[in-house]
Amino acid sequence: MLGTGYLGATHAACMAELGHDVLGVDVDASKVGALSEGKVPFHEPGLPAVLRRNVEAGRLRFTTSYEEAAEFGEVHFIAVGTPQRKGEFAADLKYVNSVVDSLVPHLRGDTVILGKSTVPVGTTDLLRARARGLTGHTVEFAWNPEFLREGHAVVDTLEPDRLVLGVEEGGRAEEVARQVYAPMLARDTPFFVTDTATAELVKVSANAFLATKISFINAVAEVCEAAGADVVALADAIGVDSRIGRRFLGAGVGFGGGCLPKDIRAFMARSGELGAGHMHGLLREVDAINMGRRTRMVDVARDACGTLLGAKVAVLGCAFKPDSDDVRDSPALNIAGQIQLQGAAVSVYDPEAMDNSRRLFPTLDYATTALEACEGADAVLVLTEWRQFRELAPAAVGAVARGRTLIDGRNCMPRGEWEAAGWTYRT
Ligand code: UGA
């Protein structure tokens, strides 16, 4: 497993759980050190137990040596990141390229490499050509995208909705993948074998669709707000239609994280390059709607406080979603930062993401509990729908806050209870 970040560490542990012998490779020695001791360097429910179990059983090891990896692997998975390029929308393929450059010269025979990273369509062909210049052996590339969600990574990996594999004609990749994923295929997990361009596009299209669904409901929310309608009741009513579906119709401060935002931008850039103008235009709008939600939330907070200058604002939630400590492109943290820049004192609390938030935004005031964050607050903002925030007692918050405005950025709070306790509820 080449790369042991979120995707690679999870996939490595889960492949060992299936009974395979796995070697995880990373250039980051501290990550390799932690994982070798059975420690997961991020918050993912259930993963520490799977990792520890397989490290202890001797099925799972980690190294920084590509030479060792080349010797060890019958099949290699690429699981490194493909971040947004600085100052551009396109994906940066430097880590994927560097894996190929580091591994391929050490290969001692014909090899199958399965790519899992999210890449722009056409990448598999580029990597194949790149590898050809580095070795005399045949290196077969296939693309095997990953659909796991943070917070559900183990179950999504071990019990996926589907497996997708993009292959070259006449190669061995399908046979190899069938062996690797045998337990899942035995359970009749749908397995789509396609050409490599289709497989690459399946992944980005899935994320683009989810992002579009969220931005759609957020655009409807804007209309609801102007017309005095209730977007949550509306989502419930349209969501029962199975053609529409209720999931990902959660209106609020929008999507963030290490995947959806950068993936739709990379897809936008690649569509533009390919002359597919409609996808480019659609995703531009999806992105603009999403980013607009953050500004709108700052406006609502300003309106509630009269002015942000000198106000005290409590922000509950920093992670981009609950059950995660990930703050990459987090709407919550971004909003907290914008409110502070406009002159408010912002006190934030998150059950898991405090350390990561502090690193990114050291100037915010970090409380040790949700109630401490609310002390003296003119307005309380809920920006990540952690269960413990939904269960907060309005009277307890009222005892420490100065104002009585609850701003629900995720449409997750029990509105009736808060209003009954004398709070003004805004969303
Ligand atoms: C997403 C996809 O759901 C995975 O299938 C995919 O494998 C992954 O990206 C990836 O490409 O690696 P993830 O980033 O873990 O997974 O997060 P999601 O659960 O999709 O949530 C993304 C964002 O959308 C969060 O900020 C969440 O709060 C927001 N969201 C979600 C909404 O604003 N409204 C909703 O109704 C649902």
TrEMBL record:
Domain UDP-glucose/GDP-mannose dehydrogenase C-terminal, chain residue ranges per copy: 314-415
Keywords, sorted A to Z: NAD, Oxidoreductase
Matches recorded under Pfam families: UDPG_MGDP_dh, UDPG_MGDP_dh_C, UDPG_MGDP_dh_N
Reaction(s) this enzyme catalyzes, per UniProt: UDP-alpha-D-glucose + 2 NAD(+) + H2O = UDP-alpha-D-glucuronate + 2 NADH + 3 H(+)
Gene3D superfamilies: Cytochrome c1, transmembrane anchor, C-terminal (1.20.5.100), NAD(P)-binding Rossmann-like Domain (3.40.50.720)
EC code(s) of this entry: 1.1.1.22
Pathway per the UniProt entry: Nucleotide-sugar biosynthesis; UDP-alpha-D-glucuronate biosynthesis; UDP-alpha-D-glucuronate from UDP-alpha-D-glucose: step 1/1
Source organism superkingdom: Bacteria
Keyword Oxidoreductase: yes
SUPFAM superfamilies, A to Z: 6-phosphogluconate dehydrogenase C-terminal domain-like (SSF48179), NAD(P)-binding Rossmann-fold domains (SSF51735), UDP-glucose/GDP-mannose dehydrogenase C-terminal domain (SSF52413)
Family: Belongs to the UDP-glucose/GDP-mannose dehydrogenase family.
The protein's name in its UniProt record: UDP-glucose 6-dehydrogenase
